[in-house]
Specification:
337 residues; alpha/beta; Quinone Oxidoreductase, Chain A, domain 1; Rossmann fold; seven-stranded mixed β-sheet; six-stranded parallel β-sheet; 16 strands
Length: 337
């Protein structure tokens, strides 16, 4: 019998998570049965566990907003095949198996790294859509972003380079500068840089026309100060847990546009063929090596509470992952990636 991780109550300490066996139904008409391969632990997952996310599930709920799996059975009327790797878009990814409608899975190219494929649904899609949704960017245009070493930030760097755009990237730790330059970031600076004084010298006399904010507070204001008149400032996260404080002059005299972005709303309001087309395009870019997220500690599902604790610590050097292919684990709970 497969196992899954269920959230039975909101709160941080300790997280109310329970790993339980469950009876998996057979795949019916238009459905596929998946054996899950891997799933990341994302900030949004942690916010759901804490009860602070913008949309909370009814409890108990199977956790996990993204992952990847392989088809092991197909119901009638399904044009996919057993053995194909897919990206489920239905949620509930912290489970060893799941049955989902065929329209809720995206076929992935053969040979993708399961860990990287498991991180395709959220961060690369967020990066791609923010780059395309708010501004008509010309080749050579500048994007400024904070949290540039995050999964979204790294995807922004790779996608922007692919499109002929340039990125001004902000990180907290100096040791990340060379790494992100090596990934293709045009300029990488730390949070101490004051863009009111430095942005034009950093960008060769130009100013960014799009700012992507995942932090809030003073960092978000610094991005706003970097923008050209009429630029768009898009907030998609709140890692710093501080609100945006925008001076009136940036609205009145600079005509900046402040918007928010939530991937869930885009998926819920976009036709299914368009959603699938985007993810298939992103999977091809992933296969081509345009972006890659570092993988940190890897745990079996039986150690999910420890995995969540590690993901919450912010001390990990890469994304904390769940590996559903390994039932046994070393004494410390980790699996070698």
């Amino acid at each position: 019998m497969p196992a899954r991780c269920r959230l039975i109550g909101f709160g941080e300490s300790p997280p109310a998570l329970r790993v339980e066996d469950f009876e998996l139904p057979r795949a019916g008409p238009g459905e596929v049965e998946l054996r899950m391969l891997a799933a990341p632990i994302n900030p949004a997952d942690l916010n759901v566990i804490q009860g602070t996310y913008g949309e909370l599930p009814h409890l108990p709920a199977t956790m996990g907003n993204e992952g990847c799996g392989v088809i092991v059975a197909c119901g009638k009327g399904c044009d996919l095949q057993v053995g194909q790797m897919v990206l489920p878009l239905s949620g509930g990814a912290w489970a060893e198996a799941m049955v989902v409608p065929v329209e809720a899975v995206v076929l992935l190219p053969a040979g993708l790294d399961p860990f990287q494929a498991a991180m395709l649904a959220v961060n690369p899609a967020t990066a791609w859509l923010m780059i395309h949704k708010f501004q008509s960017l010309m080749r050579g245009s500048w994007i400024v972003q904070n949290a540039a070493n995050s999964g979204v930030g790294r995807a922004v760097i790779g996608i922007a380079r692919h499109l002929g755009l340039r990125t001004l990237n902000v990180v907290r730790r100096p040791e990340l500068v060379e790494e992100l330059l090596g990934l293709g970031g045009d300029v990488v600076v730390t949070e101490e840089i004051d863009f009111r004084k430095e942005v034009e010298s950093l960008c060769g006399g130009a100013r960014p026309v799009l700012a992507l904010n995942a932090v809030g507070g003073a960092s978000a204001l610094n991005l706003a100060n970097a923008l050209a008149d009429g630029g768009f400032h898009v907030t998609y996260g709140a890692m710093g847990r501080q609100p945006l404080k925008i001076p009136n002059g940036l609205l009145i005299f600079r005509d900046l546009q402040f918007r928010g972005f939530w991937l869930r709303r885009w998926r819920d309001t976009t036709p299914v063929p368009e959603v699938h087309a985007l993810y298939q395009a992103l999977a091809e870019l992933l296969q081509a090596g345009l972006f890659k997220t570092p993988v940190g500690p890897v745990y079996p599902l039986s150690q999910v509470a420890r995995a969540v604790e590690e993901a919450s610590s912010r001390n990990q050097s890469g994304k904390v992952m769940l590996d559903f292919s390994c039932a046994e684990s070393p004494a410390d709970g980790r699996i070698k990636p």
